[in-house]
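**User:**
Make up any protein.

**Assistant:**
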Amino acid sequence: MAAKRPTIYDVAREAGVSKSLVSLVLQGSDKVSAAKRDAVRRAIATLGYRPSRAATTLAANRSRTIGVLVDDYTNLWFVELLKGLRAAVEPRGYKVLLGDIASGGPDVRASLEGFLSLDVDGLVIAAEAPPDSSRDLGIPVVVAGNRAVRHPGAVVVAGDDALGAEMAARHLLGLGHLRLGHLTGPGEAARVRAEAFRAAVEAHPGASLTVRAAEGTLEPDGYASAVELLGDAPEVTAVLAANDTMALGAAAALRGAGRRIPEDVSLMGYDDSPLAGSHLLDLSSVDYRGVVVGSDVGAVLLEWLDGGSPSAPPQAAPRIVPRGSTGPAPTGR
C-alpha cells in the first residue's frame, strides 16, 4: 500500500505552528518571522510535503502564475527576457506559463482567452497583436518591448530601440564605412530601429544607406533580404540586421557571394542573443538588455499584484558589443 501523502496539517504539527501560518509561508508572505518560516520549511523537507496547487489557489484567491505571450519561440530575444522575468518573480512563488502565437498556432485573441481561463494573476504580452485584440483584460498586463498596439491600462516596459540603432550607426560609421545597408522586418521594434538607423546614417556627411525589408525576422528572411541587398547595392561595406537571427542569414548570403566578414563587409546584429556570442558567428551586436527588461517587467507586475500603482520604468539603455564581425572599412571603397 502506498504511503499516505503528508498534508498541510502534518506540516503544521511537525513545525509546531498553526495551519494558517503554514499557508502564509507557502504564499511567500512577509508577515512570518524568520524562525517560524525556517521551522515550516524544515518540516516540509522532512515530510516531503508538496502543496496542492488547487488548494493554494482557492485559499489565496491567486493562481501564483503569470502568462507570457510571445511571437515565436525561435526568436532568441525571448530567452533573455524570460531569464530576467523568472529571476524576478519565482522567488515570490510565481510560475511562468508561456504561450506562442507563431504561424499556424492560435491567434492572439484565443491565446488571451486561454490565459484568462487559467486564472493567471498577470500577463506579459511580448508579441505584436492585431488592433481588435486590444481590450481591458481585467488583470495586470505588461507589454514587453515596443509594440504597435496598446492595450488599455497596460504598462509598457522596453529597451531604447532608437538609441540602440543610433549607436550601431555610430559604431559602423566610426570604422569608416560610408556605404551601409540595413535589413529590417515587420513589427514596431524593427520600425523604430530602422528609422533611427536611417536618421543617423543620413546625418553623416558622405554616407548613404540602402534598406531592404523582409516579411519576417528569421534566418531565411535575413538570407533573402541580404541577397537582394547585395544585388541592388554591391558597394555596401557594412550591414545592420534587425536582429541576430536575421544576421545569421545575412552572414550566409555574404559568404555565398564571396564576401569576407569583416574584411569586405562588416555585419552587425541586434539583441546580443546567445547566437551572437557563438564562436562560429562571432557577431557584433546591440545588447538590448533583455535580462534587464525582463527583470523590470517582473518588478512592475509584482508591484501591481501587491496593490501598488506601477508606472513604466526608464527604458533600459542599450550598449554595443563589438566582436569579430565588424572591422575597418576596406580601403578604396
